[in-house]
């Protein structure tokens, strides 16, 4: 079944070229079913890329999904045009009176700042607080996960000696959760960040379970037992070349970043990387949509 999106959204043409079924708003209006309403708070700097990556994963289920893209009204983007935002995005004020079945809050390249130093932090806290009463389940990604753990549970983040970048082995912790249904006991996932959250701090909340972790990269996946809050500290949505492009960008800026670990063949940045995490990325998003959103959300989300 399709993801519903604007006909002119750049991601549409890319996904259709991959034979992913997308549907126009007009055609979706003739379907005699209620689609899931999913909002995406896109905090990534290059929003078109993030849109495509997330929509690709959301499309791989039998569910019809109606997407609402949100950007921060309190922040001026330097890497995404105002025309694109005006055409395809809404702000929180536009939707704050609405209810959604699911919400995704992406990462952002601001993790070295204290949360309160981020210019849109007040607006984001409004969204995080609103999500607890107006959204069935929220999936937080990378810095979005750190921000939510801090806002909801007081879990702090810790700066690491150097950037964590690469594709790392993870294992399930054995805590029961539908979010990891069908997961291999060990699996791969990318990370790209300067800060982390500690498993002991997450578990100390008494409300959030650590579901998967890595000896090298730490916590990867955590969730509340009811699936209302899901936290992913890595980037399962990344394309095969995303870490390579980030590495080239950081090196061009003169940043002392390491070669992404376990990523390039023979650790050679000139070699073409291979995607070894795609399957579990799709499974994670499918599980979230099915078990945390579709099977739990009421037919009338305002009821």
UniProtKB/TrEMBL annotation:
<keyword id="KW-0486">Methionine biosynthesis</keyword>
<feature type="binding site">
    <location>
        <position position="163"/>
    </location>
    <ligand>
        <name>substrate</name>
    </ligand>
</feature>
<feature type="site" description="Important for substrate specificity">
    <location>
        <position position="192"/>
    </location>
</feature>
<dbReference type="Pfam" id="PF04204">
    <property type="entry name" value="HTS"/>
</dbReference>
<feature type="active site" description="Proton acceptor">
    <location>
        <position position="235"/>
    </location>
</feature>
<keyword id="KW-0028">Amino-acid biosynthesis</keyword>
<dbReference type="InterPro" id="IPR029062">
    <property type="entry name" value="Class_I_gatase-like"/>
</dbReference>
<dbReference type="InterPro" id="IPR005697">
    <property type="entry name" value="HST_MetA"/>
</dbReference>
<feature type="active site" description="Acyl-thioester intermediate">
    <location>
        <position position="142"/>
    </location>
</feature>
<keyword id="KW-0963">Cytoplasm</keyword>
<protein>
    <recommendedName>
        <fullName>Homoserine O-acetyltransferase</fullName>
        <ecNumber>2.3.1.31</ecNumber>
    </recommendedName>
</protein>
<comment type="pathway">
    <text>Amino-acid biosynthesis; L-methionine biosynthesis via de novo pathway; O-acetyl-L-homoserine from L-homoserine: step 1/1.</text>
</comment>
<comment type="similarity">
    <text>Belongs to the MetA family.</text>
</comment>
<dbReference type="InterPro" id="IPR033752">
    <property type="entry name" value="MetA_family"/>
</dbReference>
<comment type="function">
    <text>Transfers an acetyl group from acetyl-CoA to L-homoserine, forming acetyl-L-homoserine.</text>
</comment>
<keyword id="KW-0012">Acyltransferase</keyword>
<feature type="binding site">
    <location>
        <position position="192"/>
    </location>
    <ligand>
        <name>substrate</name>
    </ligand>
</feature>
<keyword id="KW-0808">Transferase</keyword>
<feature type="binding site">
    <location>
        <position position="249"/>
    </location>
    <ligand>
        <name>substrate</name>
    </ligand>
</feature>
<feature type="active site">
    <location>
        <position position="237"/>
    </location>
</feature>
<feature type="site" description="Important for acyl-CoA specificity">
    <location>
        <position position="111"/>
    </location>
</feature>
């Amino acid at each position: 079944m399709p993801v519903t999106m604007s006909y002119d959204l750049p991601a549409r043409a890319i996904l259709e070229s991959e034979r992913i079924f997308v549907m126009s708003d007009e055609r979706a209006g003739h379907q005699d079913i209620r689609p899931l309403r999913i909002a995406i708070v896109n905090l990534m700097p290059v929003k078109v890329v993030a849109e495509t990556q997330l929509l690709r994963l959301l499309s791989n289920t039998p569910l019809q999904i109606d997407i609402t893209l949100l950007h921060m009204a309190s922040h001026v983007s330097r890497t995404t045009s105002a025309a694109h935002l005006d055409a395809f995005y809404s702000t929180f004020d536009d939707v704050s009176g609405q209810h959604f079945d699911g919400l995704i809050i992406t990462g952002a390249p601001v993790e070295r700042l204290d949360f309160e130093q981020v210019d849109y932090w007040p607006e984001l806290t409004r969204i995080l607080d609103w999500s607890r009463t107006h959204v069935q389940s929220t999936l937080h990604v990378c810095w979005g996960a750190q921000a939510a753990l801090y806002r909801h549970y007081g879990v702090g983040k810790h700066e690491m000696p150097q950037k964590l970048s690469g594709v790392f082995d993870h294992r399930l912790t054995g805590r029961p959760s539908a979010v990891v249904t069908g997961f291999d006991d060990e699996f791969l996932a990318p990370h790209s960040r300067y800060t982390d959250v500690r498993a002991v701090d997450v578990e100390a909340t008494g409300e959030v379970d650590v579901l998967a972790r890595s000896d090298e990269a730490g916590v990867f996946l955590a969730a509340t037992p009811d699936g209302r809050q899901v936290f992913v500290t890595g980037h399962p949505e990344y394309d095969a070349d995303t870490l390579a492009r980030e590495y080239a960008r950081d090196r061009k800026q003169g940043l002392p970043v390491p070669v992404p670990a376990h990523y390039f063949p023979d650790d050679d940045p000139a070699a073409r990387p291979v995607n070894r995490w795609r399957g579990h990325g799709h499974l994670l998003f499918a599980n979230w949509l099915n078990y945390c959103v579709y099977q739990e959300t009421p037919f009338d989300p305002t009821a």
